[in-house]
Every structure is written in C-alpha cells, then in structure tokens.
Give the backbone structure.
Amino acid sequence: MKLPRKKQAPKAAQASSRQTGENQANKNQADENQRGRKPLISGNWKMNLNHRDAIQLVQQLSYALEPDDYARVEVSVHPPFTALRALQTVLDADRIPITLGAQNCHAEDSGAFTGEVSAEMLAALDVRYVIVGHSERREIFGESDEDVAGKLAAVFRHDMIPILAVGETMQERLEGSTQSKVAGQITTALANLKKEQCASLVVAYEPIWAIGTGRSATAEDAEEVCSFIRSQIAELCGKATAEKVRIQYGGSVKPITIAELMAQPNIDGALVGGASINAEDFARIVRFRHEG
Ligand code: PGA
C-alpha cells in the first residue's frame, strides 16, 4: 500500500513548480555537497507504540519512501526499548534502509541498575544512534550534564553515535541565557571526547518550549543557535572537526515547517517527536524537498 502523495496540480502550474522544485533541489544538493554532511532525520517515538504497532509503522514508512529519499537523507527511528528487537528483525529481513536508534541508555555496561538498559545491549541489537540528554530525561528524570557525558562515552565505547540533545527553557530564552545554557551543556558533554568521536557526533538543538507544543522556533532563531553550537564545537575540537558535526533542529517539526529549517546552512536534519509516529507526516518530513 502506497501512502497518498500530494494532489496533482494543473499542467502549466506543474511544469513551473517542477522547475522551481528542481532548481531548489539542485541548490540543496549543491549546498549539501559543499557542506559534506548528509542530513539525518530522526523519529523519536518516545513512550509510544508497542512492538506490533512499531512494525506496522516502519512497514508503512518503507512503502512511502523511495530509494532516492534514502540516498539524500539518512532516516533513523527511535522506538521504545521493547520494540528494538522486533524492528531489527524486520529492517534486516525486508532490507529496509532505515537506521535503528534508541532513546536513552545507562553509562555502565552492566551491573545492579534495576530497570536500566546499557549501551552494550543496544549495540548488540544493531542500534546505530542513541539519543542522550533529551530534555525529558534531563527535566523529568533529573539527568545532569555529567550524567549525559557518561552516557555519551558509553555510546562511543560501543561504536554507536550519540545524538546529544541540548536546549533552553522559555524562561532562559527570555532572560537571554540561551547561549550560556547550551554552551554549558556542550562543554561538559564534549570534555573528554577524541577529535574523531567529536566529528561523528550528532547534536540536536531542541528548545524545550518548542517540544510538543506545536510552537516551533523560527528557522532564523533555530539557525542562530545551531550556528552558535557549531562555533562552540569549533572552540573545543577545532574548526575542521566542527564542520563535520551534524546538527539537527527539534521541537514541533512538521511537514510544513521542515523545508525552511533544512534550508539553513547549519541545520543538517531534524529530531521529530509527535509527527514521527504518523507514517505519512514523517515520510513528508523526510521528503522535505517536495514540501513547501
Ligand atoms: P516534538 O518532539 O516534535 O513532538 O516537539 C521533539 C522531541 O522531543 O524530540
């Protein structure tokens, strides 16, 4: 079953919009080649979907996405732990080029930590990306910058890639402390990283006030902070390394907002919550060049 695509426009409009679309696609491709960073669009499913629903969602996604989409954008899904094994099996058996991700891990490899899951266990399930320091983990479960640094090290230790989430509250934004908050989160997280680890890192800038609120940051505001994040990484790990780091924006990303966000020079992808558990919406986000 193919998911419905956009309605057909009249012929003349189609030709001109095709041309504009092609021009935009060529421009995006040129920008990307220049940047050398393949966009990464990640679906953070949070505490939603049991393993059966999870299988259904990736199957719907695989029908909606074309080989060309995967060539242009890397796509990862981050289900709850209980669905990882089922998805690993389906992605592998059906050769679906969606990358498997997790939402969290513990800093230790094993031990008396009831209810926790280690990075080592995730690696054994072919997980490639692990979100660390999501604001819900920091705010609801009290994770400190130091806890996040420990998890980051664990993810690298098992040859996976962390998606380090950072961002400010509305109050911090109003007080003008967005940059100092984000700089502190980045500095502690990157303190003990080697250069090559730093280069492979993904950072997700997620203003807390934009998460799950339907109120996305404007593309300009998001770009301003993402550009600042890159400059911070350059200070800590060198400019050449910072140019390799992929920076995602997250917070109420929707099909109608993605194209403008992706057009920003320092935004290399998106971390998508609510819209990622709907196959049609998430596929439209991945195919952002066709939107807008
Ligand atoms: P949202 O969530 O897209 O529902 O705002 C983003 C996130 O928390 O990663």
